[in-house]
Known about the structure:
The chain contains 6 helices and 11 strands. By secondary structure, it is α+β, with helices and mostly antiparallel strands.
Amino acid sequence: MKLKYTLIFMTLLLIMGCEKQEEVVVGGITERSPEEQIQANIQLAPEFAFHSIDGKQVALNELRGKIVYVDIWATWCRPCIMQIPALKEVEEMYKDEDIQFVSISVDKEKDIQKWRNMVREKQLGGLQLYAGSDMKFHNEYKISTIPRFLLIGKEGELISSDAPRPLNHRTNGVNEELLEVFDQLIKEQ
């Protein structure tokens, strides 16, 4: 439900962005136009930078210009592992779109090799990053359980800090709600 409101909000932002209104001064106080009010309410996703499986540091701001779908997971998390086949299917479906799939491991430092092995063995796609127990990241995104999925817009705006998961547990197939969200975001480009 929260995601639907976010999408409605983003659609209003796009619509209102097309109708430029002048500032209004009432009693000596400058009031913001509706467009400026919406812009003021947009929350940018908290910045993060983690090392990829190849050892290269990757920052969120380097991914601007693409929709970013982030999977926060760990090798010991069975519900996280259950998401992998559906995530791979979604990645394949949207491989030609401006969507960057990012998986961030929160495995403990002692399990970093286990993470590397699993990425290779399961041939995980997307951008594979390692956050470990970076509490700043956990706190800024209010992550208390995993798996958790984030959706970040092309300009770095946080669309959802609890985006739909790739797997629909009722059907054991790809989550149609996630596909609808992606299709809507692509359509709005």
